[in-house]
Amino acid sequence: MNQLIPDVTSNATARQPDSMTNAITGSLHWSVAQIEVLLDLPFSDLIHRAQLVHRQHHDANAVQLSTLISVKTGGCPEDCGYCPQAARYHTGVEDQDMLSLTEVIATAEAAKAQGASRFCMGAAWRGPKQRDIDKVAEMISAVKALGLETCATLGMLKSGQAEQLRQAGLDYYNHNLDTAPEFYGEIITTRDYQDRLDTLEQVRATGMHVCCGGIVGMGESRHARAGLIAQLANLDPYPESVPINHLVQVAGTPLHGTEALDPLEFVRTIAAARITMPKAMVRLSAGRQEMSEAIQALCFLAGANSIFYGDKLLTTGNPEAQRDDALFKKLGLHSL
Fold first, then answer.
1. Residue 299 appears among annotated catalytic residues
2. 151 part of the active site
3. What is the pLDDT of residues 165-195, one digit of tens each?
């Protein structure tokens, strides 16, 4: 076995080898082949390794609660094959105006009252215009004043926009890579991979934290899932927040009808993300509505320590807060 992925399962009480210590500092460059080795491990071995890494860097029973709202829904000119907000697809999602500042503040206050510590604002744009940035900056400042961490996902950013968002108080900017470079063209044609990397570079240059992950279950191979994790883990530095989404199939989108991903393969992806990005918050994101409690529990065991909390994501359902509270009680989890 590759020495960068050492066998520590034979003696759980043994000191971890130096090679693993190096691996979990974040200094390791992960090849796609090395991550495939991880994904190919016997399930219990993979989960054990993920737990070792997770416990070294995090409270094993704590989960961060984030709330996500859509401040501007529908009408997006992109052709992302998974997205019901693309204007070219007939999904029943209507183009709506931006929410008012009052509406955003009220939603953020309710999210905080329910226990959320991070508030994420999303907009269906290819990239925001300056007038959009001005309005979102007001929202960010108001949410920050409530004592919540702030996150925004607004599409590609132009020069200077990331800095304006940072000055407004934005803590995290979300811009997902979605999938591996070689599979990307099967999902999106209206922007390329480098566009996404360029936006991430602008965000990093301001000193803001990066929230960046991807979507699995879009018909990609395990090799492509390993490629996505490699891209994320090899960002310098890797993202502080890594949302792993399970495709939510929406009628009218090109990916509707895609063969469903085996739930245990999703758990394996969570584990690989935890091992390769040890200090990151790994978020169990879209698709939780369709997951059983047992699969969610395995995801937490594999190193997921963040969820979107509430009734709705951007345009799709999310487990209700009361159901999440009941699950946390069963598992002995507490919120950060």
1. no
2. yes
3. 999 999 999 999 999 999 999 999 999 999 9
The catalytic position among 49, 118, 151, 274 is 151
Q: Is residue 243 a contact partner of residue 272, using CB atoms and an 8 Å limit?
A: no
Q: How confident is the model at residue 5 (pLDDT cuts 50, 70, 90)?
A: low
In the chain, what percentage of residues exceed pLDDT 90? 76
Provide the H-helix boundaries in 41-191.
43-57, 101-113, 130-145, 161-168, 181-184
In the chain, what are the domain boundaries? 53-335
Q: Which two tokens stand for residue 80?
A: 């992302």
Catalytic annotation on 212?
Answer: no
Give the C-alpha distances (Å, rounded to integers) separating 130 from 100, 152, 219: 17, 15, 36
**Which residue among the candidates 83, 196, 212, 274 is catalytic per the annotation?**
83
User: Tokens 């183009």 label which residue?
Assistant: 95
Q: Residue 98 burial (CB < 10 Å; 0-12/13-18/19+)? A: middle
Q: Is the dihedral of CA 204, 209, 215, 220 positive or negative?
A: positive
Count of CB atoms situated within 10 Å of the CB of 28: 18
- Mark whether 222 is an active-site residue: no
What values do phi and psi take at 115, rounded to 5? 110, 0
Q: Which is the catalytic residue, given 196, 225, 283, 288? A: 283
User: Domain spanning 53-335 has what CATH number?
Assistant: 3.20.20.70
| Helix runs in 146-221, H state only | 161-168, 181-184, 193-206
Instruction: Find the catalytic residue in 49, 118, 166, 211.
Output: 211
C-alpha distance from residue 83 to each of 155, 172, 238, 250, 319 (Å): 13, 22, 25, 8, 20
Looking at this protein, which amino acid is placed at residue 184? Answer: Y
83 catalytic? Reply is yes
